[in-house]
Every structure is written in structure tokens, then in C-alpha cells.
Design goal:
Elements (H helix, E strand, L loop, with lengths): L5 H5 L6 H9 L18 H5 L8 H17 L49 E8 L18 H4 L7 E8 L7 E8 L4 H4 L6 H10 L2 E8 L8 E2 L7 E3 L4 E5 L18 E3 L4 E6 L5 E5 L13 H5 L35 E4 L9 E3 L11 E4 L4 E7 L7 E9 L5 H4 L6 E10 L19 E11 L2 E2 L6 H6 L1 H6 L9 E6 L6 E5 L26 E7 L7 E9 L25 E6 L5 E5 L2 H4 L5 E5 L9 E6 L5 E8 L4 E7 L25 E7 L3
Parallel strand pairs: 7-12
Antiparallel strand pairs: 1-29, 2-3, 3-4, 4-5, 4-6, 7-8, 9-10, 10-11, 11-12, 13-14, 14-15, 15-16, 16-17, 17-18, 17-22, 19-20, 20-21, 21-22, 23-24, 24-25, 25-26, 27-28, 28-29
The structure holds MU-OXO-diiron and calcium ion (3 copies).
One calcium ion binds next to loops.
GO biological process, one term: killing of cells of another organism
GO cellular component, one term: membrane
Protein name: Phosphatase
Length: 681
Amino acid sequence: MALIDLPLLMKDAARGKRSAVTCALKCGNQCAFGPCNHSDNATFRDIASAALSRRAVIGGTTGALAIALGGTQGALADPGTGQGKGKGNGKSGALAPNGSKLRFEAIAPVDYMVDEFTVPEGFGWHPIIRWGDPLFEDAPDFDWNAQSAEAQALQFGYNNDYTEIQEIPGSNGKRAVMFVNHEYTNENIMFPAETDQDDVIEIGMAAHGLTVVELERKNKNFPYSYVRGAELNRRILLTEEFALTGAAAGGELLRTVEDPEGRTVLGTLGNCSGGLTPWGTLLSGEENFNGYFRTPGTSAEDARYGLADRATARGWEATHERFDSRTEGYENEPNRFGYIVEVDPFDPTSTPRKHTALGRFKHEGANVIVAENGKVVAYSGDDEKFDYLYKFVSRDSYVEGDRAHNLTLLENGDLFVAKFAGNSPASEIDGSGEVPADGSFDGTGEWLPLVVDGESAVPGFTLEQVLVHTRLAADAVGPTKMDRCEDVEPSLHSRRVYVACTNNSDRGTTGKAAADEANPRSENRDGHIVEIDEQGDQTSTTFAWNLLMVCGDPAQGDQTYFSGFPVEQVSPISCPDNLAFDAVGNLWISTDGAPSGIGFNDGLFRVTLDGEDRGRVEQFLSVPRDGETCGPIIRDTDRSAFVSVQHPGEDGAWGEQVSFFPDYDGQGPKPSVIQVLPQRG
Ligand code: FEO
Ligand code: CA
Ligand code: CA
Ligand code: CA
């Protein structure tokens, strides 16, 4: 047997053992090779002083906003209730923020060695579906010792990340369709040690991709179960044909020997977060796609995307030549990954699409909002140290009820990249994370055009180049280098946009961009959340912004900020990743990396956004050892929440497993989708 050599791969990787495994298998050890962005576009500090005279709109009105919203929502809120004072047990007790029905008493953070899924008192948790669960009538039951690519192709994939559940119309709340993507695989804990390397590769490939699966429940007081063999069930694998859309489709940069037309790609890779469109389709971001390709590594484009002439973690290039772009005819294969993918879960025969109009980079995901003028706006972060925040504005307008038309909206439009300016003196942004004298990290910003009216807006770049080599085009217009934008999620309640900057250990280090007001902490271990308020319509090219929070554990002495909420009353939070909103507009944050930051297992947190408790953070759940909390869905009207637990026990090895979640049957861990709801009886 020749399983992937993890110790070798982990050499030079990140500091903690847990993150080293993640680095090797999820990100291809990108950190070990340094940030991809060596562009010398204007750093934020260069422009901060120029913006001093401009009054920050959000910064200037936060207090007024709080008062205004407090007037309408304060009566519903739990006045003055701090962390740990609530009586919530899911059924009774103090009202939750903004009157949410999901009432709970925040849990204490859980030590990173604990292999338990922890929920508040009065709640229970239920696995809906696990890695290996059979999706179809003819799918075999999972057997740790009899795995095959054929079986895996019919079973739920590995490392569930983005997750969305939509009720099936007419089912009276009893039936739903769930979409889940499968970001990557942890071969070190998936397979018996004697497994043949060719089988490891083929099964691993079949464990990637996407799943659509139907759910059913007795009523909203009962957990969902998945329905084996249901009509909408679907696995989308690396053999599935995806249609390329947008101006780059059919172009020279996307053609290969297998696809001389440059319009059809087999499969999707590195799917991380995503979003639900107003027309009921799912978007999924192709993130760390570079980790699957070996390339010549000689071009500026390769360097900027972290593509190199080195063996990949999984070695697929040894047996599948399209993953080796040094092979004649496959030079452009890596150009066909790194997009936003759209899937219609209600039509199992539909062709999934990759939208070049939203650009190509390490898309964390994309989230859509319909602007006041009817255009569709999609926000997307490029999750890499010092990379950028993007916005797409559709050419055509949303038409309520015309699904066929709306399905085309992400195929053509304008593309922008964000440039932030702070309103505090640069001398007050010293990298410590200490709040400047005006009381806020805040300022204004611009959306710099990359594509306008179907034309490239970047001198020296064709439209096709902008859409395929988006990072390089963006470098040329001077956006702000961010601390790894993960989910970027507009609130349908306030229309404000929230950006999870998960962390950036290189910020402010030698030769790297210094701290700025939008990324104010050097060696940013714990991340922060940016709040954006578009000026006027959502399609505006200017915005105001402020930081909702600078994360960490105040009890450990971390320099933190929670919009002025008392730091001693918040749940410690580190490495924000995925974002969601509940029915009344509270923000929910799931984390990825808290163990290597504050030493606790990752979790799911509720954040009050408005009123006098703005900035209050309450931890709702904690995932088991080595797990990442992904894909949160909040259904507070049903007093229910869902998370995908990714890579539980990734620090283990076959025969030395360190997690047995969720079944605790002594075999090993399985990434799973979990529902949390009040315990009955
Ligand atoms: Fe797959 Fe950006 O996390
Ligand atoms: Ca300021
Ligand atoms: Ca993520
Ligand atoms: Ca992450």
C-alpha cells in the first residue's frame, strides 16, 4: 500500500498539527509557499490618509442606527441580558435577540481535544446524513473495509461544506431538498492501511463533487431524515459535464484536447461555501482547485494562482493526465476550475454550469441579492492571504416568476473589486487591533471596475483575460489586500453586507502588507468581520464600512472588539468562516480554525447586529475534535439549526483514529450534516 505521505506533505506547513493536515489536504500547503499576491498595488495605508477628510457614513451613524433600530426592535429584544444570564432551553425563557424563536443559553467553549458535539441545554442533535450513506436504491451500504469507487459514486461524498435546504413546494413542510458540496478528502483516516493507492485515488475522486438529496420529516418538531432513492437525489462527480457560460466560454484560454470548443468541463473541485439564489438554485465556489493540478509553474498566471510544478497531495496527475497541464493538449485544464458553479436541485437532468462572468479565483462562495433596480448582485471573496473582495452586477434584471429567464442572470454582467479607505490616522492603526480614537474601524470604499458593459475595464487585459486571470486583472487596478475573505453575505433584512475575514498570519510581517483600518491586526490569528453599507442602490460603486468585530478570546488577553459590547460578556470566537442569518436578521457565524487560535473546538455563534446588544456573541454549538463548522442553516421559526461537520478527527490515522463522530462505533469519523433542535418530551 502507498497511502498519501502526510508527514512529508505537512513539512513546512502551518504551526498546529491540526492545521497542518488541513493545509496539506485542503489547500495544498499554499502557506508554505507564501502568498500568491506579490503585486505592488497601493496598500491601504497609502490611501488611508487621503481619506481622512471624508466622513465615514457608517462610522458616523452607528449610534443613530442603534437608536433607530432599538426603537423598533428593542421591545422584542432581551434588554441588557448578557452572556450566561439567559434562561433559554429551546422552549421557554427570555426572548432571544430581535424576538427570534431560537432561545438558548450560550454554551461554554469546548476544549479542542474533546470529541463531542455540544449543544445548549434542552437541545439535541441528529445526523441527517453521513459520508458513505447510500443515496440510491442500488447503492451499497457503507462498509469501511469494502470501499470502492463504484460504491462511493452512489453514496454521500466526503467533507460536506456548503449546505442548503429548501422545502419542496406542496409538501406541507414535510419534504425538502438538500444541496451539499464535498470540498476535499482526508485519505489518512478514510481507508484501511492496506488499501491500494489506485483505489485510494479512484474512491477519493468519487468522494468529491456535489450531492442533492431529498429529506422528509413527520413535522417541524421532528428531525429530518434523508430519503434513499428519492426522485431528486443526485451525485455530481468528476465525470459530470458542466457547461461554461459567459464571455470567456468558448475562448482559447478554456480549450483542451478533450474539449476543443472550450465549453464543457468535466466535474468541479474544491467546492467550499455557496449561496441560494432567489430563483432556487445553488451556487458553489471552486476554491482550492490549484491543489489538484501539476503545471509547468513558469508563467505569471500559474504563480498568481498557486499552480506549480510539484506533486499534488493526492497524486491524481499520475494516472489522470488532465490533472497534469504539462501534458500536451491539457495546458488549459486548470483554467477551467476556479469558478462559481450553479446547480438546479429541482431538475436532476439539468446541466450544472460554471459562470465565467463572476471571474476566476479561489471563490469561497457567492451570495446573491436583488438590487432595488432589479439587477442581481453577487458578492464573492477570494480566500487567500492578501487577496480581494469582488462584486458582480447582472446585465439583465430579475423577473419574479420567470425562472427560465432568471437562470440566465449570472451569465452576463459587470465585475468589480473592492478598495477600502479608513478614516482614522494611519498612526492609530498600529497592528495591535486597538480601536482608533474615533471609536471605530471604519471608512468608505469603492468598487473598482474590471468589466463594464461587456467590455474589459482593465487596460492591457482582454475581457477573456479578465474573466480567466481575474487575480492579475484585479492587481492592475489596485484593490485592498484583505485577510482572507471567506463568506460574503448580504442581509435581506438590512441589505448590509457582511464579510468574514478568517485570519492572516502574514499581515504586517516583513515584506508583506501592513495592517490597515479594514485589516487592523498584524499576524491576524483570529480574524474579523467587515460590515458594508452600499451607498444607495446595491449596485452602487461606493460604500461605507465598519468592522462589526475583531475576533479572539478577551479572557486570554486577545485584543478584540465587538462593536462596543462588553468583551467580558461575549463567547470567545476565532476564525470566522461561514455566515448565515436567522428569520429576524441576527447574524450567525461558523468558525474554522479556532483550535489553532484560541484552543477551543470550532462552533456556531449568534451575533446580535442591532440595538443596544449589537456585537453580543453567543455560542450555540461546538463540533467534535478537529472538525470545522460549515454550511450553517438557521431555521429559528422551527427552533432548529443545521451544520455540516467537516474533517472531524483529521489529525488521526487508520488504526489511530482520534474521532468517532457521529456514531461513536469505534470505527472512525464521518463528516456529517447535523440538525440541532429542541429535545422532545
Ligand atoms: Fe474552504 Fe475558504 O474555506
Ligand atoms: Ca475610524
Ligand atoms: Ca470555508
Ligand atoms: Ca476556512
